[in-house]
Design a protein that fits this description.
Elements lengths: L4 E7 L6 H11 L5 E7 L6 H11 L3 E5 L6 H11 L4 E4 L11 H10 L4 E5 L12 H13 L16 E4 H7 L10 H8 L6 E5 L14 H15 L4
Parallel strand pairs: 1-2, 1-4, 2-3, 5-7
Antiparallel strand pairs: 4-6, 5-6
The structure holds guanosine-5'-diphosphate (GDP) and magnesium ion (MG).
Guanosine-5'-diphosphate binds next to strand 1, strand 2 and helix 3.
Length: 234
């Protein structure tokens, strides 16, 4: 039987984070029907071998291996498109997101009239943890810039941790920009109908292992996304 929930996890060089992350998800999603789909852009550190070794003994884990492509948003879109589940989640592969919220997110989607539940760092009870001031400032400017393209006033449009209904994703999909790092804002701005969403707080943890891939080009991609959406170029 198809799992009810697929957690799409984009990865690039996350070898030592894979096993602890699956263990934590397994512990929190007891009695739920779930799968994890890793979307890996040809990692060079052995992430692929680690995932393949786990897949041999665990049918809940799947891998989409992309060659000749890089990009967080497109990895998430490809992963959600490949899954057939009724509910989809997007989550980082470095244990910075609080997996213990997954169960509550799923229950919210099932029991409330919602398209989307967002893990938010910028609301009471949430936090970005101990970022240095330059990263905090960049994130706050990016959050503010989201207002240029969205009327929804999300508290954390830059969040990479959320759960959504498949039908909401399918409706937004033809209109997605697809570039850059920020798939949540893209989904919301691309939806042809009003989005029913809820934000819930979480604290962004420190990276478990490995390095952040966020660089200057990510900021540039974001500016391009805002301009393209504002002038209606998809
Ligand atoms: N498939 C794929 N995953 C990526 C890419 N860039 C980053 N990721 C993954 O996306 C998640 C978030 O990236 P990260 O570098 O931790 O961003 P940060 O948390 O904002 O510093 C991690 O699981 C990364 O491995 C990419 O180009 N392709
Ligand atoms: Mg990270």
């Amino acid at each position: 039987m198809k799992p009810e929930l697929t957690i799409v996890i984009p990865t690039y060089n996350e070898r030592d984070n894979i096993r602890p992350l699956i263990e934590k998800i397994d512990q929190t999603l007891v009695n739920e029907s779930w799968s994890v789909l890793f979307v890996d852009d040809d990692s060079t550190d052995g992430t692929l071998d680690t995932v393949r070794a786990i897949i041999k003994n665990d049918s809940r884990i799947e891998l989409l291996h992309r060659i000749g492509r890089r990009g967080l948003s497109s990895a998430c879109i490809d992963g959600m498109s490949a899954s057939q589940s009724t509910y989809l989640a997007v989550m980082d592969g470095d244990l910075q997101h609080d997996e213990s919220l997954l169960k509550y997110m799923l229950a919210s989607l099932k029991n409330e009239n919602l398209d989307l539940v967002i893990g938010s760092r910028y609301m009471p009870g949430g936090s970005v943890g101990n970022w240095k001031w330059s990263r905090k400032t960049t994130s706050l400017i990016a959050t503010w810039m989201a207002k240029i393209v969205s009327d929804y006033h999300l508290k954390d449009p830059m969040s990479g941790f959320f759960m959504l209904r498949r039908d909401f994703f399918e409706q937004a999909k033809p209109h997605l920009h697809g570039g850059g790092f920020k798939i949540l804002l893209d989904l919301i701005v691309s939806s042809p109908r009003e989005v029913n969403f809820k934000e819930i707080p979480f604290t962004f943890r420190n990276r478990h292992s490995g390095e952040s891939k966020l660089g200057a080009e990510v900021v540039w991609e974001y500016v391009k996304f805002i301009v393209d959406k504002k002038i209606g170029k998809k």
